[in-house]
């Protein structure tokens, strides 16, 4: 099939139609690009922002091919795609950024860790986990608890299980539906903080590294992000260097989130890289000279990158998570709007369910604690899928 251009302007193609695609689309449009997306549903958040959209599964060869034909650069908001299909598109001359080989390395957390470790990037100890017996023997060797993880397609901690005994290893194996190839083991890290750094790298190797953020997780889901992280300067410098080395090391192009553990002894370990814009970088929309979305679009189109510097001293972002199953209509918006300095982002999802990311609130401030107070005040007023406390 020949290239069908939807306009004279250059077009960004995005695989996926969720909130990350929506925020990427807004950035692309501000730079004068057209946007075409492949979404799974006409209700997907990015559909209304796109100039054109295709509906289909992200692994539907025909839909992918239509998307690729309609754009100049194909990028993604979701790493759970078949990298072989993307490799086929590359072979037929399409530009996929980040590349299919970068994606296939990252998609398997065990391969990702092995590659990072091969490059001398610090990661938690990890090992193959092809049977219960193998994990038990690894746990004995390491001492302490092990984190057993699904190698592929895991998010929000749903593919992880901690095991502190042989019995728990057996139940984790059952729970995660283990087989010879699907899991791997990591040492359980007693970290002091979780950090995250957004790194943008362009095709021509220019890089922008955002400030080190501190992420607060509850039940393995990110609740809040504080910037800058309350760590000393040498630690921040080391975290930035490790994050940049990690993204460059896997051949990343675009904006990527690097999740890090900071241990009590000061050691920094890479937990994982997300090969796409990241929830921990949403604060960059209001807080930085150029957002992670802006720099993602710049990076994949080989444009000069914008500055990742903070515009204010500090920022905080609070995720708005669904409380119950419901219709996705937020309650308490008036109360949230009354909070001066809080920017409320609603993703427009048609349905809420417990833990689903429905929006986020960002606030700037003189320090992270003040910014968090503002963001939390607005966030606390908004509820999805729960009885109204106050009508809006
Ligand atoms: P997400 O989609 O939120 O990034 P995920 O499913 O990819 O999550 P991970 O990032 O591997 O999962 O882990 C989720 C959380 O579990 C981490 O943010 C951290 O709090 C905890 N965790 C992961 N690995 C370890 C470890 N080795 N030791 C201790 N805690 C860990
Ligand atoms: Mg993670």
Task: Write structural notes for this entry.
The protein has 392 residues and is α+β, with helices and mostly antiparallel strands. The chain has three domains: 91 residues, 3-Layer(aba) Sandwich (Rossmann fold); 63 residues, 2-Layer Sandwich (Dna Ligase, domain 1), CATH 3.30.1490; 191 residues, ATP-grasp fold, B domain (D-amino Acid Aminotransferase, Chain A, domain 1), CATH 3.30.470.20. It has twelve helices and 17 strands. Strands 9, 10, 11, 12, 13, 14, 15, 16 and 17 form a nine-stranded antiparallel sheet that branches. It has a four-stranded parallel sheet with strand order 3-2-1-4, sandwiched between helices. A four-stranded antiparallel sheet has the order 5-8-6-7, sandwiched between helices. A hairpin with a 5-residue loop joins strand 9 and strand 10. The chain binds adenosine-5'-triphosphate and magnesium ion. The site of magnesium ion has 3 residues, from strand 14.
Write the SSE topology.
Layout: E1 11-15, H1 19-30, E2 34-39, E3 52-55, H2 61-69, E4 73-76, H3 83-91, H4 100-107, H5 109-118, E5 126-128, H6 132-142, E6 146-150, E7 160-163, H7 166-175, E8 183-187, E9 191-201, E10 207-209, E11 213-218, E12 221-227, H8 233-249, E13 254-263, E14 268-274, H9 284-287, H10 292-300, E15 314-321, H11 333-337, E16 342-346, E17 357-365, H12 368-381
Parallel strand pairs: 1-2, 1-4, 2-3
Antiparallel strand pairs: 5-8, 6-7, 6-8, 9-10, 9-11, 9-13, 11-12, 12-15, 13-14, 15-17, 16-17
Helix pairs in contact: 1-10, 3-4
Bound molecules: adenosine-5'-triphosphate (ATP) and magnesium ion.
Magnesium ion (MG) binds next to strand 14.
């Amino acid at each position: 099939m020949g290239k069908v251009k939807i306009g004279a302007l250059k077009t960004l193609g995005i695989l996926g139609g969720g909130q990350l695609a929506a925020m990427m689309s807004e950035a692309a449009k501000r730079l004068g690009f057209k946007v075409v997306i492949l979404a799974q549903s006409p209700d997907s958040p990015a559909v209304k922002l796109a100039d054109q959209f295709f509906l289909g599964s992200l692994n539907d060869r025909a839909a992918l091919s239509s998307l690729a034909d309609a754009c100049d650069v194909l990028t993604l908001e979701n790493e759970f795609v078949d990298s072989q299909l993307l490799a086929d598109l590359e072979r037929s001359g399409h530009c996929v950024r980040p590349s299919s080989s970068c994606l296939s390395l990252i998609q398997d957390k065990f391969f990702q860790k092995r590659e990072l470790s091969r490059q001398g990037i610090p990661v938690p100890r990890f090992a193959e986990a092809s049977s219960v017996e193998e994990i038990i023997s690894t746990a004995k060797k390491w001492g302490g608890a092990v984190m057993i993880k699904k190698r592929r397609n895991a998010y929000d901690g749903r593919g992880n299980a901690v095991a502190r005994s042989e019995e728990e290893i057996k139940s984790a194996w059952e729970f995660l539906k283990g087989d010879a190839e699907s899991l791997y083991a990591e040492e359980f890290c007693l970290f002091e903080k979780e950090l995250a750094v957004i790194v943008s790298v362009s095709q021509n190797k220019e890089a922008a590294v955002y400030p080190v953020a501190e992420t607060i997780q509850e039940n393995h889901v990110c609740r809040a992000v504080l910037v800058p992280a309350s760590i000393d300067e040498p630690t921040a410098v080391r975290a930035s260097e490790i994050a940049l080395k990690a993204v460059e090391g896997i051949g990343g192009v675009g904006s990527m989130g690097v999740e890090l553990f900071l241990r009590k002894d000061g050691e920094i370990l890479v937990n994982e890289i997300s090969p796409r814009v990241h929830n921990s970088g949403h604060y960059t929309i209001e807080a930085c000279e150029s957002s992670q979305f802006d720099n993602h679009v710049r990076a994949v189109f080989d444009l000069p990158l914008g500055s990742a510097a903070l515009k204010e001293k500090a920022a905080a972002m609070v995720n708005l998570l669904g409380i119950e199953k419901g219709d996705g209509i937020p309650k308490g918006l008036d109360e949230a709007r009354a909070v001066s300095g809080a920017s409320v982002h609603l993703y427009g999802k048609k349905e809420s369910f417990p833990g689903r990311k429905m929006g986020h609130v960002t606030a700037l401030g003189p320090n992270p604690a003040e910014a968090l107070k503002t963001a939390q005040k607005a966030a606390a007023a908004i509820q999805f899928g729960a009885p109204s406390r106050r009508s809006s």
